[in-house]
Amino acid sequence: MNETDKRLRELRAVLTETLPYELPLGFTNDNLFLSELKDDDLDDPQRKAVAQLRHSNSGYTKPFLFKINRSMRSRNTLAIIHPGQQLKIAKFLADFENTIIQACSRSTFSLRYPASTLKIYKKGSTSDVRKRWSLGLPDQQFGEIIETEYSPSFFAYKKYLLLNLFYSSNELVRLESRFSHLRTLDVSRCFFNIYTHSITWAQKEKDFSKKNSNQYSFEQQFDTVMQKANYNETAGIVVGPEVSRVFAEVILQRVDLELERSAKEKGLVSEKDYVVRRYVDDFHFFAKNVDTLNILEDLLSDGLEEYKLFLNVEKREELQRPFVTRISRVKHEVGQVCASLESALGQKIEISPDSRSAVSDAQKSGRKALDALRFLGGSERHAFVNSFSDVFTSIDRIIKQLDGLEVDGDHREKALEELFGRLKFTVRILFYLLSVDYRVPPLIRSAFLLERIVKLSKRFPQSERKAVKAHIAYELSQLLGSNYSDQSGPLPLEITNTFLIGLMVDPISFCEQSTAREVIENVLSGNHVGYFATLCALHYMNSVQPADLVHNDQLHEMAIRDAFCRATLKFLAGESCDLRINAEHYLVFCDFLSCKAVDQTMRWEAFRSKLGVTEISKAKFEELMVRLRHTNWSEPGHEFELLIKRLPPVYFA
């Protein structure tokens, strides 16, 4: 293995395993990966700056914590680990990949576990693709999405990547035929309660682990990198990155084994008297009677307590054969409604010269299907929201069908009018979903769908094309207005991504909407602080010029932009801004100083002053910032290039 291949192996996990799925649109680790892989291209002052930012800290780091909507009444705290620590985690995964696979393959209960490492190139790829990797991607430019084929995750997972795949599997049908009772349980705030030292107990006996806690080992190293990623905390691990699920899996595999052993002591044999299936921290007990379920639950509770974990008894669910949950039933009904939507909106456009109706039969049928969808949501909201993934998939298929519809012929104008009506109705469905389920995953899926809708609108004359984009911008503004309540403090990720989608679709039309103006005024005036607010401001300044806003005072606009830039520079220059430890400070520094919407001299001088690298020229500074940034700033008119496909989260809806 040459040096480049070795570095590639050590770095690859930062592309997939060290970030959460729920991120600002456009956020990427591609430049982190490429800049480390191609660090020989740097001169001494550039290399010194990178070392200060990423490699000079051997101690703990502080993750950037942010909250996201989880359901109607709850929020979850996710983390972006400091990029310097992400590099250490990636190297750890590469060094111990075989040990991790072995530690995660001990239990037969697990439904999702790393079973092998995926190859860098896919089966069937040409030798040229492999050659590009081995040479360090010489043709890959910084600031571009990596197009060379690589796997969507560092590990290959068995048996089910997503939980809903288990619910629709033949395995569940077979279990239902053997057992009459099912009980589901989950671990209460599992990742927040995991004690990092307990991974050593999961690998070795507790007493042995405590006596040999200072010895170098896989479990001791895993414990250390997870602590250093989380401010040296031992109570809890960061939530979001895939590496945290791997860490939890090692511990829960041991819990599985202890449960099976304890049940055997009670005379219960796995796969005969009962079956356990666990998806991350969700347990499914299958048995022939309630007594067996009660025994298993008590044993599991005792086993978890050894690792300072506890069951969430309020989320216990009991089912008798057939195992049709509320979610399963509603998903089935939603599937029927989706089929009706696809049939109605995707049918061939046939124009009758005698028709006087402004709304076609296809759109009327689509409206009936949407009403059926709404009525489902009214009676079964939680289950309804968990079925939205199917609706998004249907919308994707509808857009493909609309794009393939024939509109030429004797009645082209009316056919285009009908296509326009169906497209607007599709947009209405999409925004109805977002109004019911305002979370980051649906927003990310919507961004990709809206990109395709905007592309489809190019089939229309210029006036209708503008109307489609203006309509979407208006809907986004309405969505923003319905959910924008806190006008100070950290900017929520949901608001951030809604704002960024507006900039992608039609930046000027969107930013002239009252709610969008309110958000950006609060951001630029400093009412909102932090990384997400900084991103909104920079994307806005990059996409919209003061002269573009005909209904806004240009002098005021330029003044608040300048005040924002100076306030950010003042923060970055202050002693409280610790780039080596604080992940949020690092991200603000790298993305703010790389954005050309900010005056170059101001950025260059701030960089040299903060890092003490006075000998770096402006040209070398700009060259380096392309490598350091986590957002590839788009040219006006190319905002959709921010969209990046990622491995979906574990619980994706």
Question: Short description, anyone?
Answer:
The protein is of the alpha+beta class. It is built from 29 helices and ten strands. Strand 6 (274-279) and strand 7 form a beta hairpin.
Features:
3 domains; 55% helix; alpha+beta; 10 strands; Alpha-Beta Plaits; 653 residues; Serine Threonine Protein Phosphatase 5, Tetratricopeptide repeat
Q: What do the pLDDT scores average to?
A: 89
CATH architectural label of the largest domain: Alpha Horseshoe
- Envelope shape: flat
Count of individual helical segments: 29
- Look at the helices and sheets and give the structural class: alpha+beta
Radius of gyration: 27 Å
How many strand elements?
Answer: 10
Q: How does the major sheet shape up?
A: 4 strands, antiparallel
Determine the N-to-C terminus distance: 41 Å
Portion of residues in beta strands equals 5-15%
Helix content: 40-55%
**Low-confidence segments, ≥5 residues, pLDDT <50?**
122-136
CATH topology of the largest domain: Serine Threonine Protein Phosphatase 5, Tetratricopeptide repeat
Work out the count of structural domains: 3
Biggest sheet: strand arrangement: 6-7-5-8
